[in-house]
Amino acid sequence: MQTIRQIVLLRSAIAAFRAEGASVALVPTMGALHDGHMALIEAAKRDGRKVVASIFVNPRQFGPNEDLARYPRREGTDSQMLTKAGCDLLWAPGVEEMYPDGFATNISVTGVSDGLDGAARPGHFDGVATVVAKLFNQVRPDVALFGEKDFQQLAVIRRMVLDLDFGIEIIGVPTQREDDGLARSSRNIYLDESERARAVALPRALGVAAREIERGGEVATALASAHDMLAAAGFEVDYVSLVDAETLDENPAPDRPLRLLAAARIGTTRLIDNIAVDLRNHP
Which residues make up the binding site for beta-alanine (predicted)? Predict the structure, then answer.
């Protein structure tokens, strides 16, 4: 696996892939890789695609009181995992390569980015959209893969790709989970033993609420019950919301694909999760 840190060398490497007639898949990450990321790499390798993984801890998507300074950085271990998984190229630029002096552009995707995490973390999705647009222009992939755990992020990227005519296929890969149901996340390493044991309340609360809604229960009651389950486990809840799976409208039509999303903090660690809800075949 090649490791490249300069755009000019990246462009040469991508040109070499293209000269072989290969299509290119991009898996953007912030490192601290886990089995969820490896599922993205595995999906990216299908159909003989050349796989480019990026590792860049993007300062523009962290708020002033968030965990940029302590976000886990372990490129050596990550590189070994990517090599073992069959990744072809690691794009690992520094901040100065991504945001050189004088950088002044910001991409804002309104609508899908306004509520939920957009409201809880002002400016977060502008930072995500800007860095992903740069990655797309740097790598120029045919497809890019993102985990469904960050469901609002996925919706923002899909909207941006459509609006800006990137011509890139965006593939969402199902959330990878631990044996007890907790969504795999780089931030799980922040959890102490007690917090980790209680964190499983997040997927369980979503599962209970989703089943209740699908059985015809009142949405508001199901969401309130999920909020109470999380609070009882020691979470400070940012939101639990049922939304349209495409537009993220928080007043969705029942004949549309729906998604139940939640974000909550346990100790100093903020976790997010989501689950599909389908009312189309239910009374």
Answer: 61
